[in-house]
Amino acid sequence: MALIFHERIGLDGRRISPFSWRIRYALAHKGLDPQVIPTRFADVERIRALSGQHFTPIIEHDGQVIHDSWSIACHLEDRFPESPTLFGGPAGRGAARLVNVWSDTVLARSLRPQIYADFIWCIDPADRAYFRSSREAQLGMTLEAYSADRDQSLPAFLEASAPLERTLSEQPFLAGEAPAYVDYVIFSVFQWARIGSPRDVLAAPATTPSLRDWRTRMIALYGGLGDRFEGYPQHRTGPDGRATEQETA
Amino acid sequence: MALIFHERIGLDGRRISPFSWRIRYALAHKGLDPQVIPTRFADVERIRALSGQHFTPIIEHDGQVIHDSWSIACHLEDRFPESPTLFGGPAGRGAARLVNVWSDTVLARSLRPQIYADFIWCIDPADRAYFRSSREAQLGMTLEAYSADRDQSLPAFLEASAPLERTLSEQPFLAGEAPAYVDYVIFSVFQWARIGSPRDVLAAPATTPSLRDWRTRMIALYGGLGDRFEGYPQHRTGPDGRATEQETA
Lengths: 249, 249
Hints:
Oligomer: homodimer
Distance between the termini of chain A: 45 Å
Radius of gyration of chain A: 18 Å
Number of helices of chain A: 9
Shape of chain A: globular
């Protein structure tokens, strides 16, 4: 069985993509150990030639090419039915799709201003110009302007997270007693925040105690998978590799 | 097997509670036909004596008394394992709990201003004073003031509903190919809106086409369960039964 995982990477091999993180956890959940092809934004032509679109992650499996993290998760579930289930059956898959949509459109969107100005520094220097120009065109402002009022926009993120905190105060994982794909999707957003910024969005222990404990449990899964790669860079470096400023938090 | 369902009712037996609606659908899903005890707000002492708290729905099952709709759904699932599953297993139950929490704290809350000023007219006249005083104390304003800017607050409800619309554009039910408890929970909120106000919160077909189609399918389930009871009253009547105003939409 040939299984290849095209995974987005950033500075010095950092894993910077929430979409790749949820697939990395899904692969670990299924006990699969694919060949990993680290993929930078600059590798876009290879990705396009392979899949006809420019997003990662992508899975190649026995000659099939699957892109879009949800489609990949469904493919893994359907093609590896003997491995632990990601959804727990059709009804769980349906509900997981709703959680996935909510995560991408509500939760992750409310997180972006918390990390965007920091995030550029964990991207490979040669990818930064692309990241900045594409995101700034989308936002209609600089990354720094978008993230300027982080303290003011943090409550919106915590409000979006409130159903997670409430649910995790009642059960250890979002999928119940054991983690499954809904946990990997939501964790990938918090992991994106961990890797992408030195500021902890869950810094106030009293506000989200259950979410913090769950995040710790999620990081520890699969031999500490959440800490297997480098975290936020200690020194922000320019394209020439020269340190331009120190970590701010 | 003795199974008794204490179900909230309003004016002339109308079913006015989203929490009772999700249990009514769950019972139908399980093929259970309990004895129904219609329960008004005025029946609070009976409910308290039975369950030690004042909310409906309540299930009595072989001498056990279960309150709180989520606990009831879990009880039905666990005690009637041979009937069609409400969650599709542990992972589905976990994700359903998250959807349930989100529905009660985000979706239903954003709906309240759309219906509260109308809702009082589908409550039994003798229950209206209690409903008004308890809700107005909670809101810090009259029901009418709370609902005064409905057109202005509708976008917030539609924005909260956006992940539902998106998910239902991809799959026929929130639980996937067939309805399950996550559908009943979310539908109960839209049913609350249908019963509680003559204004259709999904009035603009182009905005939420998938959500509208799903609502129609949900109403039709179990022999048209969603239309089995009276809808919003054509005439609003005062405590003395005299019509005070005509339906406004």
